[in-house]
Specification:
Length: 213
């Protein structure tokens, strides 16, 4: 499986695109911080935000993010300090978007945070919206797919879906930060998870020292 962080810059001048989907689980900050970290690493970032995620973002953060893809891209570029064109956003039923097809989708997709609803849809191949379809494409093309679920406690349904997805090659990376780095701020907990995601993508970062450093 190709690593998102290993390639040369593509013709856009950015590192290869990574798809980031933010769904309606608690922990919107993980997804927003992941976008910032990918931008800082020079990657193009293709973003989808579910309707429920917009509500969670409104509830949990002070980010003011419009729903329409073009406006959303402008707002995310502004808040992350991205270069023009570095962030592209796609709408819920934008079936002609490159992420909807194996011929156009990036080599890596992260669903962060991932609601149990989207987890279930991905595990069963529902493909009822562009996030679910893009994840389905990632699975069928054997690309890197990382899901960051946040729910507690977990039911047998959640656990079975996670096991099935792991067996299909996806990475289940629960939003469960450790405490051994002695976090002082919420941002330290967020960075713990984002660092783990970047490790999975093979992208260099300085968010946290690696174990043993
Ligand atoms: C403030 C808020 C917090 C939520 N937290 C979670 C959560 O932590 N985990 C989860 O699976 N769903 C959570 N939900 C419920 C999901 O948003 C809901 O199931 C939704 O249908 C998910 O849709 P999506 O997967 O298309 O984003 C939350 C909803 C709201 C409004």
């Amino acid at each position: 499986m190709a690593e998102a962080g290993s390639g040369p810059r593509d013709k856009s001048g950015f590192q290869p695109p990574v798809t980031v989907a933010i769904t309606g689980a608690s922990g919107a900050q993980y997804g927003l911080r992941l976008i910032e970290a990918l931008v800082a690493a020079g990657h193009e970032v293709w973003v989808m935000i579910s309707k429920a995620a917009h509500l969670v973002i409104e509830t949990e953060t002070d980010a003011d993010l419009p729903a329409r893809p073009e406006r959303l891209a402008r707002a995310l570029i502004e808040r992350s300090g991205a270069a023009p064109g570095q962030i592209r956003c796609f709408g819920r039923e934008e079936w002609m978007a490159p992420v909807a097809s194996g011929s156009g989708a990036p080599s890596a997709m992260v669903i962060c945070p991932c609601s149990t609803g989207t987890l279930s849809a991905v595990a069963t191949g529902a493909s009822n919206n562009l996030i679910e379809r893009a994840a389905d494409v990632a699975l069928k093309e054997r690309r890197r797919l990382i899901l960051v679920p946040r729910e507690t406690p977990l039911s047998a349904i959640h656990l079975e879906h996670m096991l099935n997805l792991t067996r299909m090659g996806a990475v289940i990376l629960p939003a469960a930060p450790g405490f051994y780095h002695k976090p002082e701020r919420v941002e330290d907990l967020v960075d713990f998870i984002v660092a783990r995601i970047l490790n999975q993508l093979g992208i260099e970062h300085r968010l946290l020292p690696r174990w043993g450093e």
